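dude i think i finally got it to work??
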Amino acid sequence: MEEQIKKIYEKQKNGRIRMIRNVLLIYAALICVVSIFKGNPFPHQETVLFFDVKQPGWVTTDPWLLWICVVVDLIAGIFILIRDILRDFSKIDRILSQQCDAEKYSEMLEELVKYGKSLDYHGFQKSVMLIAESKYVVALIINGQLQKAEEYIKNEWEGKREGRSWQQVMTNLELSKKYQEKDAAGYSATLEKAGKVFQKNPLFMAKI
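look at this
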């Protein structure tokens, strides 16, 4: 377990370098794709009817295409980064989905959070820890450790408070509390305010 945790963080130590490399490669690829249809992107000379004619290139005539490439490039770069991190977490999630061992899943995430907090973050290591802590709190809730989950959120949470992850774990906690207290009215009211992520989840709907 310890070796697996270290490997996840070590992989993201040079995350920024890998992201820059990916962004540059994707950008170059996008420029090439556009150039297939629009021709040479840069100012150049072309021979037309025996005369040399200076052509501006599509970078000059259609600069908006360049900006589209930039936007698509950044989105693709961020997507690859997030996908890479989530792929590592999917291996941990299998403990819960395939082995149905919520306790082992919780222990794994607890160690992942503890190890992450001991690091001087490099690259995207902090991003790994922040994802791990939100999953850890949910794991505690799954195990019925609501008080421990609440204490972590109040005293140890390192992510942005009032951020999306924080709001989601707080909603998870509130729904679990209402369910445990058999407060159907409170549960329904919380679910009503929770948003579509929770309202469309059959697990939560089944508890009403």
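Residues 1 and 108 are 7 Å apart (CA to CA).
im so relieved honestly
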